[in-house]
Adenylate cyclase, class 2 (Caloramator proteoclasticus DSM 10124), 175 residues
Amino acid sequence: MKEIEVKVLNVDLEKIKEKLKSLNAEKVKEENQKNYFFSLPNGENGYVRIRIIEDLIDRKEKITLCIKKIFKTDFARQNIEHEFEVSDFNECINFLNELGINDFKREDKHRESYILNGTLIEFDTWDKKVFPIPYMEIEAPSIEALEDILKILDIPKDKITSKGLLEIKRDMGLI
């Protein structure tokens, strides 16, 4: 599946959440995540991720396996992503190790997600040691839909970036 996404930094997240509620956006997720990131072989741009999700709305836990390949990073980051649910975390680790994918890091976060006009708006708060500042991520079905949501939520384009979290951390001097 192709995804188009941006991160939104240095905006009043509570004000945007209130605006989403006033626009009757649907809250679709609130969860705690344990994310295990693995590098792709051959230095490809992207990663493999195992995610353990604690769903705080439905009180369930699930595990997903995902591969994300990044292919465009101008105005919005564009990825090819394949994700599916799995039943056994340890078997996922063994499977990746058998493929020669074994370097990983774990990073945890809290995520709250809304849908407005077919666009996913997510609020991420990482463990402070991973990234100290909460931010938004907007995932839209098209560039036009992304631009529409930015207008509706009154988010200036100078507050968005197509950079990944690692690049943002480098720019901020955090690594």
